[in-house]
Amino acid sequence: MSDQLGSAIPAFQGRVVTPEDGGYDAARKVWNGAIDHRPAIVAQCTDADDVAAALAFARDRGLEVSVRGGGHNFGGNAVWPDSLVVDLRAINQVTVDPRARVARCGGGARLGELDAATQEHGLATPSGTVSNTGVGGLTLGGGFGWLTHDHGMSIDNLVSARMVLADGSFVEASPDENADLFWAIRGGGGNFGVVTEFRFALHPVGPLVHAAMLFWPLAQGVEALAVMRDTIADLPPGLGGLLGVGLNAPPAPFVPEQHHLAPGHALLLAGFGAAEEHAAVVDAARSKLPPLFDFVSPMPYTALQSMLDDAAPPGILAYERALYLNDMTEGAIEVMAEFSARKNSPMSFAPVFRMDGAFSAVPDDATAFGGSRRPAYTVNLACVAPTPDLLGADTAWAQEYWSALRPFARDEGSYVNFMVEPDQERIVAAYGPEKYQRLAKIKARYDPENVFRHNANIKPADR
Ligand SMILES: Cc1cc2nc3c(=O)[nH]c(=O)nc-3n(C[C@H](O)[C@H](O)[C@H](O)COP(=O)(O)OP(=O)(O)OC[C@H]3O[C@@H](n4cnc5c(N)ncnc54)[C@H](O)[C@@H]3O)c2cc1C
């Protein structure tokens, strides 16, 4: 079957992997080890021509299509059962123009590949916090991390993109060309076509930055979470932060051995300016409530970008639920403290991203991002488990935790990149009806047959 199919994709330069091939299991694996999807064909594309050839082949054979970047979507959208997978992993070249401060990044690159190339010039663009995440899926949904406070989301730094549409045509999306498409791909996910190249604006960052982790035990939950909130809600320019709510202390060299795996809460602070500015914020938090331990150190920006990799290794079993909070009120903090003590897997926790600063300087309708730009917290209830039993127990935990936090949430919406089981109601809620309608009209123009549907799907508007 493999030869037949391989040779049947005319002019395809990459490798075609089918269930009969050795390597099929490796080719269909995604980050979430709980996903066991069996696609019909994995078309490992080497360039945009391969993408067009694979899409044409799927069309001719009546095969559904899924698109694979870094494979981090929790629900396994990248390798949908019985579909043809447009696998972009080999389209991962990154070139940097340091004068123009622009990076060209292949649609299948990982964050670590983008960072490695840009850091050669002391530059970076905002992305996520785990280095093996795909630039593609992360960017198309929004993309936030340490640099978001200073420079916004990945989409806020997207200059243009090269795409292959469902009908195989090649287009550019930018403020000057196909501006509606350019608006839609900045938050509307992989609904509109396959991005083979992103171009990002870059900023001077590093190479050395400052990192800190302040860790409090579970017993100090309510007080510690309030200090963490007050600190992260009031960061000066030049700092970015993340809360690890209900995190077990990593068994890492910078954690005193007696506290390895201790359950608690972590305030993580990254500083991109002077060491003193970072130290002042760390000292202020420390003096409000002395932590169990802390760690403060300069480190390369690329090390900061991979500091959390071990918390979410590929192949681990995972499930997630997310929501936006306008504020971490006392009520919300009490729920967080209570549920942090009730998780089952030591690896489960709630990463809480503060969204403000440059993120909030962008008007709501400037991009298709699914969520308001008002300052907020994105709370991700991440169940991360080494065994099926723990996965089952913490899936129930995350669902109950989510229901308990819902009364404090901003609205029904949440970040589309944190939706493991997107249903139509939640997708519409993520964008709000007006934005969703605008996206649906653009979808009808660029993908009227809804070829790109294995995602947080925007249905084409009736024409
Ligand atoms: C461990 C971990 C850490 C994370 N940390 C963060 C974080 O810090 N910040 C954040 O914002 N998000 C984070 N996320 C969420 C992440 O943004 C999403 O999981 C995202 O979908 C990952 O993209 P991917 O390319 O790796 O995934 P894939 O599963 O490969 O792709 C997801 C979907 O994106 C689309 N897609 C991917 N690439 C392309 C492309 N080039 N062209 C067209 N469509 C494409 C497809 O529809 C695909 O189904 C994290 C996820 C995990 C698992």
Low-confidence runs (pLDDT<50, min 5 residues)? none
Distinct compounds present: flavin-adenine dinucleotide
Mean of the pLDDT scores? 96
Rounded to the nearest angstrom, the radius of gyration is: 22 Å
Relative strand content = 15-25%
Describe the biggest sheet? 7 strands, antiparallel
Counted by DSSP, the helix tally is 14
Distance between the termini: 40 Å
Inertia-based shape: globular
Helix-strand makeup class: alpha+beta
Share in helix: 25-40%
Question: Strand arrangement, largest sheet?
Answer: 15-12-14-13-17-18-16
Tell me the total number of β-strands: 18
Q: Which properties best describe this structure?
A:
463 residues; alpha+beta; 7-stranded antiparallel sheet; 5-stranded antiparallel sheet; 29% helix; binds flavin-adenine dinucleotide; FAD-bd_PCMH_sub1; FAD-binding oxidoreductase; FAD; oxidoreductase
Structure explained in plain terms:
The protein has 463 residues and is of the alpha+beta class. It has 14 helices and 18 strands. The longest helix has 18 residues, at 388-405. The chain is globular, with a radius of gyration of 22 Å. Flavin-adenine dinucleotide binds at residues 31, 66-73, 77-78, 88, 107, 128-130, 133-134, 136-138, 140-145, 189-190, 194-195, 312, 417, 454-455. This is FAD-binding oxidoreductase. Belongs to the oxygen-dependent FAD-linked oxidoreductase family.
